[in-house]
Design goal:
12 strands, Lipocalin, 6-stranded antiparallel sheet, 4-stranded antiparallel sheet, mainly beta, about 190 residues, single chain
């Protein structure tokens, strides 16, 4: 590919800088000027057409090509499978972010964990709440014991409303004495 420069028409009347008004055939200044257009058709070595377009609708940038004929916004792309931001990843409410012991980076710093029954050798639940007021659950672990062995462990992760379950993982565990022999995981 060759790097080329576009010619510019800059006037203060159309949003340019009056100090930069030059003859109509002046080249753009790559470190200062931005091209103004309704869209941009992207070409390659073998295509010169209107199938691949970057454009704008209101405050949204739109992307369209042959494989994606319905324009997608930049927000759509970031929220979809191809563009998760680092801060967005930290705040995902997926169980992998909570197992083994609750919320971490990206979540409220005043999170509160409640283990019940209180001070029990074999607790049956551990719930992480957004705060000590216990109004919104973040993640919950429920344990069913057979003797000294936890035979079922259920993890639930909650949406930001604190009541809607987003995902559940249930482990069913078998033992030989006190030694785990098998574990079956169901994900819902």
């Amino acid at each position: 590919m060759d790097r080329v420069q576009a010619l510019k028409r800059e006037t203060a009347a159309l949003g340019g800088d009056a100090a930069d008004e030059q003859p109509w055939d002046a080249p753009i200044e790559p470190q200062e000027d931005a091209l103004e257009s309704a869209g941009l058709y992207i070409q390659d070595l073998s295509n010169r057409d209107e199938t691949t377009l970057i454009s704008r609708s209101g405050d949204d940038m739109l992307f369209r090509d042959v494989s994606n004929p319905t324009p997608a916004t930049l927000s759509d792309l970031i929220a979809g499978t191809g563009g998760l931001t680092e801060s967005g990843h930290r705040t995902l409410r997926q169980l992998i972010h909570f197992i083994d012991d609750g919320p971490a980076e990206g979540f409220v710093s005043a999170a509160y964990k409640e283990v019940l029954p209180s001070a029990a050798v074999f607790p049956t639940s551990a719930v992480w709440w957004e705060s000590v007021s216990k109004l919104k659950k973040i993640v919950e672990k429920l344990i069913t014991w057979t003797g000294v062995n936890p035979t079922t462990i259920v993890w639930k992760v909650y949406d930001t409303d604190g009541t809607t379950v987003l995902a559940t993982v249930t482990d069913t565990i078998s033992y030989s004495g006190v030694f785990e022999t098998t574990r079956t995981r169901a994900i819902a």
